[in-house]
Design a protein that fits this description.
4 copies of one chain form a homotetramer. Chain A has 294 residues and is α/β, with parallel strands linked by helices. Chain A has 12 helices and 12 strands. Chain A folds into 2 domains: 139 residues, Rossmann fold (3-Layer(aba) Sandwich), CATH 3.40.50; 137 residues, Rossmann fold, CATH 3.40.50.
Chain lengths: 294, 294, 294, 294
Amino acid sequence: MEKKQMNFSIIGGDARSVALIRLLEEAGHQIYVYGFTTHIFSKSIIVCSCIEEAVQKSSIVIGPVPCSQDQVTLFAPFHQGDPIELDILFSLLSDHQTFMAGQLTIAMQKKINPLVYTVDLLEREELAVWNAIPTAEGAIQIAMEEQPITIHQSCSLVLGFGRCGKILSHMLKGLGANVSVAVRNSKDAAYISAYGYQPIILQDLKREIHRFQFIYNTIPHMILDHRLLLYVNKDCLIIDLASKPGGVDYEAAEKLGLNAMLCLSLPGKVAPTTAGWIIKETVLNICEEMRGDK
Amino acid sequence: MEKKQMNFSIIGGDARSVALIRLLEEAGHQIYVYGFTTHIFSKSIIVCSCIEEAVQKSSIVIGPVPCSQDQVTLFAPFHQGDPIELDILFSLLSDHQTFMAGQLTIAMQKKINPLVYTVDLLEREELAVWNAIPTAEGAIQIAMEEQPITIHQSCSLVLGFGRCGKILSHMLKGLGANVSVAVRNSKDAAYISAYGYQPIILQDLKREIHRFQFIYNTIPHMILDHRLLLYVNKDCLIIDLASKPGGVDYEAAEKLGLNAMLCLSLPGKVAPTTAGWIIKETVLNICEEMRGDK
Amino acid sequence: MEKKQMNFSIIGGDARSVALIRLLEEAGHQIYVYGFTTHIFSKSIIVCSCIEEAVQKSSIVIGPVPCSQDQVTLFAPFHQGDPIELDILFSLLSDHQTFMAGQLTIAMQKKINPLVYTVDLLEREELAVWNAIPTAEGAIQIAMEEQPITIHQSCSLVLGFGRCGKILSHMLKGLGANVSVAVRNSKDAAYISAYGYQPIILQDLKREIHRFQFIYNTIPHMILDHRLLLYVNKDCLIIDLASKPGGVDYEAAEKLGLNAMLCLSLPGKVAPTTAGWIIKETVLNICEEMRGDK
Amino acid sequence: MEKKQMNFSIIGGDARSVALIRLLEEAGHQIYVYGFTTHIFSKSIIVCSCIEEAVQKSSIVIGPVPCSQDQVTLFAPFHQGDPIELDILFSLLSDHQTFMAGQLTIAMQKKINPLVYTVDLLEREELAVWNAIPTAEGAIQIAMEEQPITIHQSCSLVLGFGRCGKILSHMLKGLGANVSVAVRNSKDAAYISAYGYQPIILQDLKREIHRFQFIYNTIPHMILDHRLLLYVNKDCLIIDLASKPGGVDYEAAEKLGLNAMLCLSLPGKVAPTTAGWIIKETVLNICEEMRGDK
């Protein structure tokens, strides 16, 4: 497909947004930014002096991921001065503009002009799949840092075989781990053995769990409850990647002296540049789809 | 789970059923067989002299995969004498027996006592996933046989990323091929690049297709139509794994002098023992589920 | 490095030489050929009417691989008319020409003008390594054709961890086999476990060998003698890739009803185009080295 | 092979020796220790009150890895009280005992009774191969910690294809990196492409080096000198795994603002338990060989 130069206004965000700005600029687009007071950009990127200017310059406005941490002000850690209020940003968006950001709640969307096309980036499937890559690497980095053994030839258990479970299992096997994956149904179990991991049916976990040195949870339910934790080896490291409250009974784990860590939002923490690249790809996919729809 | 000895009656089928019989027997079950006149079994397997006896002996009766090729008689290539009529077999099934076979059509199911629990094995998800393994290996075997180049470092294109596309891509990469996978949506494309293949969006295929030496189709629609075939390299081998009528315009391919092969039902052809193992696993899963339901 | 056009005269050989001719021509070189009567080349390749002309046209003359099968005439299966005598070819080579071919015996080299720079292509290390790739694929193809089970999840044993053992193990693992490799020393055993295969020390083989469904021998000594064959499973396929007489007691294997196959010269048989590419790469490496030496 | 209970005396060492003690004990051997004042062992391990007792108890005495850091006293970080002098330990070794340790210099060996069989563990090939695994993982951990991008899909260059280069390349590819390996000769280049990495000939490195985001050096010569560093990307991370003084001109790297890190002795730092397991395997191999020699 032929590339067409577009304008993007990027308002607030962390190191991922900085990477996004650079990558969109390198892809040949014109970028306007606001909310990065402490960051120095290359000359071809236009730093706007006020939010009004930034929002007006482009038909596509990209907010942070997540859009807000307090539901009132924009998430803009590089911004100095008064916090940017969501309401002000939303009021500036005009008919036929597109606004993309992460975790655009229904409450937020209600405040935005209905003729603005809004996209919650975190609802995009491809972003979620891609984010599983830095999540998996982040989990592996923590596993390497915490334990006195190698991943190679370790007994590693992955709970769940969704996006994160699939990619984490693939990488652990790539490092030479003995990978088992626990799932609920026989279809997933067939995939798991097809890919060369050992499948475990969740209800049989109690019998098997003692032999693992690493357990990675990706299932957003209470899987490792106090009864199952009783069988976990004392030297095992538990890395919980499932969104809050996670899949581990942390209180029980602490009583048993087990090392269990809740590790959230890894992409932005361990690989912000890659995470920015992922947002860029997603944004360009969305633009492509919008063009296709016309 | 503790294993419990069960009785199975296996009526008709090809080399896969022979493997199934042996594997169920090795797993400790009592097996009754009918419809394998030309095959000699080990002593512990009981060869019934008539179909009535075979059907009565077990609560679980397993027919062939597929159940019939002509919708009238049982598929039983090892059987000598008069063909076994489906109607006779169906009439022998009694209340609370379970009957499993492949391609149990609605017409067939209507002829069976409604108190018989029937299972179409080919509708089972785990069987379909597992069957993708011998299908992928069969495709690779044919690719090796037909072309004067190695799979290693070849440019290989897989169309589709369902069960067969996933496992075939995985194996081709395992052999060192440069694997591209063409799909329709950006979510699948993200998985494809996460696994280390090059993603191609189907609508961009025309621009890319000339560089491939192997094309494997797994999409059950007309993908490689006469317009797209125009761009395919003359030395390329096209292996079509999609069910009839397949995804290739064979007439156009022939006119263009392209080598396109429709390769169906590979598991039973290239790896009947593995295919029998897959049926066994599926049968035991079904038995497990039936026990769980009680 | 900048590419420089060179002249090559290619005299005799099989499908690999035909591929070599095409690939050198595509790389921008001028090619003169003799000994391919039954083959039609593209116009840019000059077919010489006599061997004298062909030899004189280039400073680099490339004979077949192997140079001869009977030590008297050139190996030239595409040549019609009287066989080409080695002595005539050798007598035509003049001072400062380079002559490359496969299996250039000492007897042959003695007959060549000592001012001719001769290279036995089969003595080149990189060619031997590259040839391990089509050899491994050929072995896998045969394994797939002969056995009713998949390579995936099979118990596969590789004897030896030299060029062929290394690459075959890598590919078998890539297809999902459970790979064991038997070697003599603990250093190789450490590499084997580092790459994720199970190491077996050769002297312990007797205890382990019964469980394998495929055995690939790459060790050019009598490893699978009659004592060891006693322990091999009756359903096992033995593929012997070691040069004659191979590493299997074939007589004993036959008595035991074992399926053992001696598979030699696989690259030229299963993948002549790739084998021709390998010769091309090797020839260009040699030319590069000759330029570097000057 | 049948396992025979042996006695081992382990004198000094760090966390690797502690792991070694536990693993030998778990393998059924009787262990005597000295030099671990601050560590509490399980009851079955006998803590000797003086070095004389510890040395006398076993025919096999295992010192630290390395034996000494100052060439005068034993490397014993868990020991409290006066340092243990090498000379005292050496004087206690008696005829027909075996003494193993790391970096047993010639000067040290001269001080030991010639009827003692001495083994420098760091000279053992299998230990060196195995140590490449935690070294590679340690390098990957550092790469993950230092850079804001994922290993996955990064452009990664490995300099050298010895033990460490081989295993590091394998793991980087397992994580999804685009791996290039630079070597001197065409044989190694052939292996590199066989394993699916991109080979680079060292003399062509200048032309290619700018595109890498990670460079791992395993060659113990000055490879990345000031001329080559000029071409390295400013965002690239250089991890130097080659023994002192390493293969990087660190002064030039600093002037250029490049991030270059010399990372030595990684196994003991990142995975002491695995490193202890490696010593245990090596020690048992040596014992096996000694038995075989008798």
